[in-house]
Amino acid sequence: MKKVEHIGIAVNSLETAGDIYQKLLNTGIYKVEEVASEGVKTAFLKCGPNKIELLEATNPDSPIAKFIAKKGEGIHHIAFDVDDIVAEMARLRAEGFILLNDEPKRGADNKLVCFVHPKSAGGVLVELCQEATPGD
């Protein structure tokens, strides 16, 4: 793993949370997009080399809606940048981690992603991210 790619924060409203984080970080949102397969709309902010991803549910059955219903708004996951997501997934499986995805899938911000189950990562939902290339 190369670095922390971003921290994901579950929010009820991108508009409300976006206003808060833009003021807090003194920067603007640089990208908003929907990931229909996950039932989520995302907004990204940069603070120096760091990124924050705000996550709003687009339907009541989405993982973000369920997270907020159970735990309220707040930190949802930490994402790590990797060079080879398939190799990293194999390494983590061999180390005994439980992965929520059998294969990498398309995520927000032009990434291939895979999630590590919080039960096998000390209670933290971990996301692996690799920059997608054309054809991924």
UniProtKB/TrEMBL annotation:
Keywords assigned by UniProt, alphabetized: Isomerase, Metal-binding
InterPro entries found in the cross-reference section: Glyas_Bleomycin-R_OHBP_Dase (IPR029068), MeMalonyl-CoA_epimerase (IPR017515), MMCE/EMCE_epimerase (IPR051785), VOC_core (IPR037523)
Listed GO MF terms: methylmalonyl-CoA epimerase activity
Listed Pfam families: Glyoxalase_4
EC number: 5.1.99.1
Ranges of residues in domain VOC: 3-131
The family this protein is said to belong to: Belongs to the methylmalonyl-CoA epimerase family.
NCBIfam families: metmalonyl_epim
Name listed for the protein in its UniProt record: Methylmalonyl-CoA epimerase
